[in-house]
Amino acid sequence: MSLSLYQRIALSLTLAFSVILYLSFLWSSQLQQSTQLESEQRLHLGLAEHLVTDNPLLAEGVYDYDGLKNLFHTLMMLGPSFEFYYLDPNGKVLTYSAEPGKVKRELVNVAPIQSLLSNQVELPVLGDDPRNLEKQKIFSASPVYKEGVLQGYLYMIIGGEIHDSIVKSVQDSHSLKDVSIVIVASLGVLLVLLLGLFKSFTAPLNKMATAIKAIDQNNLSQVEIDFSVSKDSNNEINVLASAFNSLIKQVQSQLVQLENIDEHRRVLLADLSHDLRTPLANLQGYIETLSIHGGKLSEQERQKFVDISMRNANNLKRLIDQIFELAYLDGGQVTVHHEPFPLADLLFDVTAKFELNATKKGVRLEVEPLVANYLVFADIGKLERVLTNLIENAIRHTQENGVITLSVNMLKEQKNQLRIDIRDTGTGINRNEIAHIFDARYRASNAQEDKSTHVGLGLAISQKLVALLNSELKVESELGKGTCFSFSLPLANS
């Protein structure tokens, strides 16, 4: 389960606070206890030796165990924080002063005693507590000799049961103070941790703020952001930063495209103005001639000038119609009306419309197959416009005795789809120019000229119309052998 940013922060802070609080309390307790034990053991380190030296029972090595027990009792009354035991050389407890059942150990490990007496270890040194099988406590010890022979050890526990009970009650009264110190220390560390965490969390936000300021200063194209974050991250700030970065890059890309389109339209407008100026100037010139010298011209000359003027007017109208059609398609406000209709009827109607022009140029138009009972689902008006443009373009670029074929085939890789090919045996297109033929006003280097004026928008219009039919206009061509334009249409029953 993915955690939100707030949940991760809350969980991180809670865990960090708990760990810091626990470690601080543990460290403080251990340090305090270790320091206290060391100081107490160091303070009473020589106490057992003084007792052995000053007490006749121990100094002479003659052991009156009952008397020694009474001595221990008296000493414990004077110093309630001490417990006294007399051990043999192997650590066996020989005598002590305590209530029956208090002493649990019969044997004390002498290794810590020997280590303490050697003065080669760091304090505190802990030894076995005879009253507890699991605890160890600080102690003071001294060997007892008789005539140079070790008789045993005076083993004195520092901080016995009475001492422990009193210390515990005092510590309880000071526990609130200790906890307060730990809390203050923990909060200080927590503050530093919070500053680091929020700095790392807000770094992407700072970068976004800088980017937004740059955008506000109209420097969008110069905004560069590198958040170095993963899109798959569950951190909401990282996701926001990544989305913002993608948005900026997309807007920058669209801005570059708009600048290119604007430049392209300016060039196109200049070229179209030139194309429109030619038939307009011709039309104006012949009309002025008729107006000024009309009375001096013969009927045949007058009719010739009128025919030329009409031809220029028709060319001008045709250019303007194509310009408006392309602008209409670029605006994206075209209404598409799909309906089922027989494709063969449309193909034969369109070829019949161009039969006369093709015959005059010596070009043959063919439809394959002659019998094709296909019902397609498309916009018949826009499909007719595409076929008209492509056939007209094919006639223009096909020499005498050439053939233009309109063929229909079922697509093997896509069921219920028809492929329509408009293939000619004309001049073809250079391979490195194929990628540009759908650009407005682009003319191939081997384009054929005729008496009509062509603004070069037919293929650009056809490409956009085919896209409205949910297809793609493709081209295959070989220089000197011909060109084939193709696109697909769905069957009406698909």
UniProtKB/TrEMBL annotation:
Coiled coil: none annotated. PROSITE patterns: HAMP (PS50885), HIS_KIN (PS50109). Its EC number is 2.7.13.3. Keywords: Kinase, Membrane, Phosphoprotein, Transferase, Transmembrane, Transmembrane helix, Two-component regulatory system. GO terms for cellular component: plasma membrane. GO terms for molecular function: phosphorelay sensor kinase activity. It is found in: Membrane. Residues 271-493 form the Histidine kinase domain. Its main location: membrane. It catalyses: ATP + protein L-histidine = ADP + protein N-phospho-L-histidine. Signal peptide: none annotated. The chain crosses the membrane at residues 6-27, 179-198. Residues 199-256 form the HAMP domain. This is histidine kinase. It comes from Psychrosphaera saromensis.
